Amino acid sequence: MLLKFNEAFEKYIATLPMPDVLDCKDNEEIAQKIYQAFHEINSIFKGTVSNLEGNYMGQFGGNPGIILKMPFKITPKRVNKTKDFTAYKLMSVVQHPAVQNGYVIPKRITSLFEMDLQRALDSIGRLKLQSGDTYTRFRVHSRTDGHGILRFEIIAFGSNSRSQCEQPHYSFPVRVTFLNYPNTYMGLGSQFVIFDEAALEGPSPNRNIDNLIRFMAHLNVDNFEIETSIDSDLEPIGDRAIEALRRVMISPNYEVRFYVWLKLTEFKKLGSVDYDKMAKWLNLAIDPTTPSYLLLFLRT
Questions:
Q1: Are residues 213 and 94 in the same domain?
Q2: Which has fewest Cβ within 10 Å: 58, 99, 159, 221?
Q3: Does residue 3 surpass a pLDDT of 90?
Q4: CATH number at residue 66
Q5: CB crowding 226-249: b at 16 or more within 10 Å, else e
Q6: CA 269 – CA 267 distance, rounded (Å)
Q7: Number of folded domains in the chain?
């Protein structure tokens, strides 16, 4: 069955299942060490941080965010509601660095957290894990995502050749809870919001992008690489895939990605492709048991 390239690729990625999740033992151990470091630097967030391990980016899936359990009570005041979220001002009478003039300030929480997170990571120094892996330093930075939410990223650097883990990498927004309310709030500008989870983490309006992300994950492209490689300015999904693969060529696992990029480029030049033959070739390419060098000799 002959189809135009972008139509055929769109059809193919819609058939892909979720990829298997990589079981990285270092993830849990690193997270526990970071929790411990907050105690060792006597941070105001010691004992309040949880779910860092749930935001490990060597696996496919969403990054739900860490939880900060703030040790005081609040009175929420609803100020706005949209189809995606409900916005609040949070009032509190407690004396705390995150409270100013009777209101909890989102930026103060994230600024204080970022400062103490960096201090905690700096205090760890050389870290040798049970797997035999050794990490010598950690880097943290922050950025604003497409929802306007501040996200933090932690990357561990060092020798990790003994385990099956990729370079440990975490990406997460900060969610906060309070003593008298079970809701988890996220800072958005000067307000706190509770997102409709379907809007924040569910299928995007463009299902093709969700499917492309799944395709990239099958090629061992982790979430961080995916976020930085997919060009939102390119409309046809096959063109986006070609450009995204071009941007991850320098990764350690580049061989299969290069061969897939090369083959997709050839398909695009043809204009129309035999869908069944293309799907057969791509299925072999994403199969981890297929030796990468064979992809050069497999014909469609």
A1: no
A2: 159
A3: yes
A4: 3.30.460
A5: bbebbeeeeebbbbbbbebbebbe
A6: 5
A7: 2
